[in-house]
Amino acid sequence: MSQPVTLSDHMDPARMTALAVTLGLSWTTDAPLPPFAHQIYFWDARPADQLGRDGHPAVGQGGLIPDMGLPRRMWAGGRLHFVAPLFAGQPAQKTSTVESTARKQGRSGPLAFVTLRHEISQNGRLCVTEWQDLVYRPEARASAAPRYPAAPTDADDRQGRVFTSTELFRYSALTMNGHRIHYDADYTRDIEGYAGLVVHGPLLAQHLMLMAGPGLERFSFRGVSPLIAGEAVVLCRRGDDLWVAGGDGRLCMQATRG
């Protein structure tokens, strides 16, 4: 396993203001950060020659994530424990560790899984622990369209929306996410095999966390099917269960509060 990596950030309030605009939130600089907003901090910016073809930092070159031998990366899901609020304008530290790696054989070929644990502290106190699940897959190949499970239809709360390429660009910029599936349509279609630009899984999770309401202590989410920019989507909640339904009724993401 690689050694833990610690990054520091002064938590610039202007960056959170930009995220609030992107998400359509009202936020003031003296208020706590919304849950999951730490994603826009702790950048690990790398020069171009240290990036892989997909725009992410190349793996297996002394960085945190080992080379699992598969080229296509996805953020599969995650779990979070919110212990104390984070505030903009105050220094914070994030320590990241590889918690586990695994290889499996899926229906479409080999898969590799990496789970990272991130611990975020401010003023000497642990504020957030996050487990980030990544999956690596082989090259895309022509095949029949996959069949995805249908989303539940019994939500108590529904919010319809359409994610635009502008929103994807802004979120990529704020999170320093260079993954080309979010902004390079030719690469996304020709190399990764998607129908169009892919909406960030963390962006969907962020909206579901906001929908979960105040006092959030624990939250878990899992991506089920890709959501394409421009596609109608419905954010749904029923009690502690939340999910994202695509325009055709398929399940895109499922999540649980608590």
For this structure, what is the CATH class?
A: Alpha Beta
| Strand and helix order | EHEEEEEHHHEEEE
Query: How are strands sequenced across the largest beta sheet?
Result: 1-3-4-5-2-7-10-9-8-6
Strand content: 25-35%
User: Which ranges are low-confidence, i.e. pLDDT below 50, for 5 or more consecutive residues?
Assistant: none
CATH architecture: Roll
CATH level 4 superfamily: Hotdog Thioesterase
In total, how many domains does the architecture comprise? Answer: 1
- Please tally the helical runs, counting DSSP H or I stretches of 4 or more residues: 4
What fold name stands as the CATH topology? Thiol Ester Dehydrase, Chain A
Taking all residues together, what is the mean pLDDT?
A: 93
**Percentage of helical residues?**
10-25%
Main beta sheet, described? 10 strands, antiparallel
Structural key phrases:
258 residues; alpha+beta; Thiol Ester Dehydrase, Chain A; ten-stranded antiparallel β-sheet; 35% strand; globular
What does the model show?
This protein has 258 residues and is an alpha+beta fold. The chain has a single domain (5-257), classed as Roll (Thiol Ester Dehydrase, Chain A). It has 4 helices and 10 strands. The protein has helices spanning 13-23, 165-175, 185-190, 201-212; strands at residues 5-9, 72-82, 92-106, 109-122, 125-137, 157-162, 218-223, 232-238, 241-246, 251-257. A 10-stranded antiparallel beta sheet has the order 1-3-4-5-2-7-10-9-8-6, covered by helices on one side. The radius of gyration is 18 Å and the shape is globular. 31% of the residues are buried.
